[in-house]
Design a protein that fits this description.
Radius of gyration: 21 Å
Order of helices and strands: EEHEHEHEHEEEEEEHEHEHEEH
CATH topology of the largest domain: Rossmann fold
CATH class of the largest domain: Alpha Beta
CATH superfamily of the largest domain: HUPs
Mean pLDDT: 95
Largest sheet: 10 strands, mixed
Strand content: 25-35%
Number of helices: 8
Bound molecules: flavin-adenine dinucleotide
CATH architecture of the largest domain: 3-Layer(aba) Sandwich
Helix content: 25-40%
Distance between the termini: 56 Å
């Protein structure tokens, strides 16, 4: 069985999720190929190789929206029984759906683990807010597509290895490939990104207002941490959607997650419960966040946070 890993290439190199999936594919054994889409570079290909790809199929669709061309090209590469990994991102999902339609392949989505035993492939999903794991097995023929949740696996480079790079010609997909990217807007951000931060300070409705949410940013700045938020806060317009943590936001796995004025709804927990150490500050001792917290502070964030900030500044 061959494993293909979809890898979106952007200006910083291969997407983080693609490196996580390549590491998993490498550990599963067998032949691992990356299907890399975007502007390529020797450095990007070397990164894919170091994470497990022995072969890189490279498609550069230029300014076209990549999914139609990527799915058409991939359909010509994947064979019966091959495994194809995609990340739970916009582009990856777009390609996975189109590839499934083209090949009639089954797709298992939201995977947190993949198990290969003999010829059978089991895909593990979390349901009921992560409280229950379900394992599903592919049956029948055709390629097997798996859409993986970010942070399910840890990206680890192995021995540096230069993969074989094959340039894939851009297939003609007619009108379905006609959409063009005319402009790109990078969201301005300060400090580490949520995906890479070792420490995240996250705020919920308990902060009370957009102005008071500034305490979260202030603490994050002192700790060199990234800012996160609940959907309630994002829906209130206090912070942009890009910092939302949870089921419909980002999945994070920092060393330390500090939850301030967050109740701990299961849709939030599913995005942060795998953090190494969780510290919760909440005035309600019955708040569900304390069930996953390693350290709990029962108190008012408007009193605890300023004191914490003051103490850290004094160090
Ligand atoms: C389909 C679906 C998807 C969703 N996806 C997400 C998601 O991705 N991410 C997400 O976060 N949510 C998501 N939600 C929403 C989720 O169900 C909760 O509504 C949300 O997480 C609650 O946010 P919160 O903890 O900020 O607010 P609340 O639940 O209102 O909790 C506020 C907390 O602050 C505490 N508090 C109040 N004042 C203070 C104070 N002064 N000091 C200390 N503590 C105080 C309260 O005791 C309370 O525990 C989703 C919901 C649905 C239905």
């Amino acid at each position: 069985m061959k494993i293909f890993v979809f890898a979106e290439l952007n200006t910083a190199g291969p997407s983080t999720i693609s490196l996580e999936m390549l590491t998993k594919a490498r550990n599963l054994g067998g032949e691992v190929a990356a299907f890399a889409v975007g502007a390529g570079s020797d450095a990007a290909f070397a990164t894919l190789g170091a994470h497990g790809a022995t072969t890189v199929h490279h498609l550069d669709p230029g300014d076209a929206l990549p999914a139609a061309a990527a799915a058409a090209a991939l359909a010509g590469l994947v064979g019966d029984g091959d495994l194809v990994f995609f990340g739970l991102t916009q582009t990856d999902r777009d390609v996975a759906g189109r590839l499934a339609a083209r090949t009639g392949a089954a797709v298992l989505s939201n995977a947190v683990d993949v198990k290969v035993e003999g010829g059978s492939v089991g895909v593990v999903n979390e349901i009921l807010g992560g409280s229950t794991l379900v394992e599903t097995e592919f049956t029948g023929s055709g390629p097997r597509l798996v859409v993986v949740r970010p942070k399910s696996f840890t990206a680890e480079a192995g021995a540096a290895a230069q993969p074989q790079v094959h340039t894939v010609p851009v297939p003609d997909t007619g009108r379905s490939g006609a959409a063009r990217i005319t402009a790109r807007h990078a969201e301005e951000s300060q400090g580490p990104s949520l995906a890479d931060a070792a420490v995240i300070v996250s705020g919920g409705r308990g902060l009370g207002s957009a102005e008071k949410f500034g305490l979260v940013g202030e603490l994050a700045g002192i700790l060199g941490a990234a800012v996160g938020a609940t959907r309630a806060v994002v829906d209130s317009g206090w912070v942009p959607y890009s910092v939302q943590v949870g089921q419909t936001g980002k999945t994070v796995k920092p060393s330390v997650y500090i939850a301030c004025g967050i109740s701990g709804a299961m849709q939030h927990l599913v995005g942060m419960k795998d953090s190494t150490t969780i510290i919760a500050i909440n005035k309600d001792e019955e708040a569900p966040i304390f069930a996953v917290a390693d350290l709990g502070v029962i108190g008012d964030v408007h009193q605890v946070l300023p004191k914490l900030i003051q103490a850290l500044k004094a160090r």
